[in-house]
Amino acid sequence: MRRKIISLIALLTALSVPLLVAASDITDKLTSAGGKAGYSTAAGESGILFTIGLVINSALSVLGVIFLVLIVYGGYVWMTAGGDEAKVEKAKQTFGRAVIGLVIVLCAYAIADFVVPSIYCASNPDAADCSSELVKI
Question: Is the pLDDT of residue 137 over 50?
Answer without folding.
Answer: no
